[in-house]
Design brief:
Number of domains: 3
Radius of gyration: 35 Å
Number of strands: 19
CATH topology of the largest domain: ibrinogen binding protein from staphylococcus aureus fold
Distance between the termini: 44 Å
CATH architecture of the largest domain: Roll
Number of helices: 9
CATH superfamily of the largest domain: ibrinogen binding protein from staphylococcus aureus domain
Structural class: alpha+beta
CATH class of the largest domain: Mainly Beta
Strand content: 25-35%
Shape: elongated
Amino acid sequence: MSLRASELRDVAHALGPELAGAVVQKVRAPWPERLELELRQPGRTVRLLLSVESGLGRLSVIDARTVSPGDTVPSPWLLRIRKELTGRRLSAIVCTGPREVRLAFEKGGTARTLVAELGSPGVMLLLGDGDAPLVASQGPARIPGPPAAGPLEGGPPSRLGEARGLDAGRAAEALVAARESIVRREALQRATTQPLRAALQRLRRTRVKVEQEASRDAAAEEHRRWGELLSRALDQVPRGATSVRLTEWTGEGPREVEVPLELTLTPRAQVDRHFHQYRRLLRGSAMARERLVTLDREIAETERALAAAEASTEAEVQTPLAPVPARPSRKRPAPAHRPYRVFRDAAGHPIWVGRAGEDNAALTFQVARPHHLWMHARGVPGAHVVVPLDRGEDVGQETLLDAAHLALHFSRAAGEPRGEVAWTRARLVKRVKGGAPGQVTYTGEKVLAIRMEPARLERLLRTREENAS
């Protein structure tokens, strides 16, 4: 719960005259979104807080400095702020927008302005002479928008009451701090419980699969029966058949049993195969039952840890004060550089061609989306080729031919008059466990036989984007 526009305006209006002429003695930033200025006036020291944290943005007065969450190296943002503001006099505090406040500082005829933009996310900017951007708390410095014109009216009313001067700043702090403890506790608790919930889900999914493995004794017994039936009737097993019907004698009399066969195996090999499957399934079931015991113990331990995390008190979760942890992103991390070259088909549609082993892997598993078309020269080492498509979009015939030409050209088959290219959707491409970077397997592929067209290839190579380095 950040300060409302009316409250931000009232605090700035109350603190501006009260702190005019105060000298910046110390500057602290426990984390980039929180800045504390220690201002000295004759007979008193005031700690001014600027926070642009999501949901906790405010301009306020605090009684004590924030205890940093451990030893940290000062950020370039903090070092520059200290250099520019320490020793300067605060000349004005002005609310210039519903979510923006500006602090003006002067020294020796030069001016510096600190702009705080409350938002999700918020940002603090330091401006030099002529409002030239010097440094920003988040990312590179940028040029701020112009101050809002006219009075800042409208919106929900202020909750600060009749507080004036420094009391207005303390009232603003008390207002947001009451919510801050709850927000931080929930965020820190979420950061603790989310990994436990994810681990518990994985363990439960694994248990379902292992339980299926542990219940394959019946399938093993079936293979044993088939093997015994076949061993007593080898002369009745025809070659090239997929099954044979044999008579099984039971306590209830004879009955017909259909025994599955492998097309290419001899009758004796058929018997060996079924007994091998019987032993394999029995071993797997025994190992799965042992694994179930371990999984049940891990699930119970994770459930206890999750219950303890969910029941933790605020004091246990929130000591010392720390920045609100961000929710974990589900997006795949972007590669450090562009791992592909960009070409264009005749209609201008992009075609991405990987560069090398690790770049091929980055293109396929970090850049390409599951519904994109993926392509590779068949049977030879080469570049991964991706055609980006909209979800549900089909690739055009000419785009497919263009991409196939690039796949062959950037492979060991380059220069050959003919070649084959396999293509599928990117979601069907998997890494080879323990394989070299870029080594993959894929399913659902279609194969395109290509007769290389020199004119087509030359046109494609001319479209390479030079800035796609």
